[in-house]
Design brief:
6 strands, about 220 residues, alpha/beta, Undecaprenyl pyrophosphate synthetase
Length: about 220
């Protein structure tokens, strides 16, 4: 059986652009195109849920203002294209965007709300975009909400109810030649199979995805046992 929930860390856009002699934002532009293709590949591979690490909270705090401005524009354009994507509607894909959304500019927040509202009736498949996100921040938020409810006792299930992304991740793919999770779904990825692809994200292909899925099916998952 293939993964039921695939996590993606699409790293390397900036380094790809620099090695091509291009402006950094050109790498992000190319990366968005590959991401849109990737989401369609996942539909064709019958993967029910995909979560994409789009912009970390640390990125938001450390990246230059001009780069962020370009990124916000690319994200907004991507969401608008997905909102009008006939395949996503035919496959009944619900799109969710989670993170510290109050940190986003108004025009992007408007696009986020629109695509989430448009796809809210769907429940066959899911795509989650993590924007202004940190797994540690998610866990802290969940714990704070849990404690504010003043439960008579604490259970793991109660904590999971307050997570922004509910389902455990089976497979995490990271590009960009880095071998770490970088604060991505730390709770949900506790028993995930990790695949580190020795390519920058703009060079990722469908064949790379197929190789990851084939290797995933060959692995014996022990889930901590």
């Amino acid at each position: 059986m293939g993964p039921q929930h695939l996590g993606l860390i699409p790293d390397g856009n900036r380094r790809w652009a620099r090695e091509q002699g291009l402006e950094v934002w050109k790498g992000h532009e190319r990366g968005v195109k590959v991401l849109e293709d990737f989401l369609h590949w996942c539909l064709e591979e019958d993967i029910p849920e995909v979560t994409v690490y789009t912009l970390s909270l640390e990125n938001l705090e450390k990246r230059p203002a001009e780069e962020l401005r370009r990124l916000y524009g690319l994200m907004n354009s991507c969401l608008r294209r997905l909102e009008g994507d006939r395949t996503l509607h035919e496959e009944e894909v619900r799109v969710r965007v989670v993170g510290r959304l109050n940190r986003l500019p108004g025009f992007l927040l408007s696009g986020v709300r629109k695509i989430m509202e448009t796809t809210r009736p769907y429940s066959r498949r899911y795509v989650n975009f993590l924007i202004a996100y940190s797994a540690q921040d998610e866990l802290f938020s969940a714990l704070r909400r849990l404690l504010s409810s003043r439960p008579a006792r604490l259970t793991r299930g109660m904590l999971e109810r307050y997570l922004w992304v509910k389902r455990p991740v089976d497979l995490v793919i990271r590009t960009g030649r880095e071998h770490r999770l970088s604060n991505f779904l730390l709770y949900q990825a506790a028993y995930a199979e990790l695949f580190f692809v020795d390519k920058y994200w703009p060079d990722f292909t469908r064949e790379d995805l197929k190789r990851c899925l084939e290797e995933f099916e060959r692995r014996q998952r022990r889930m901590g046992s």
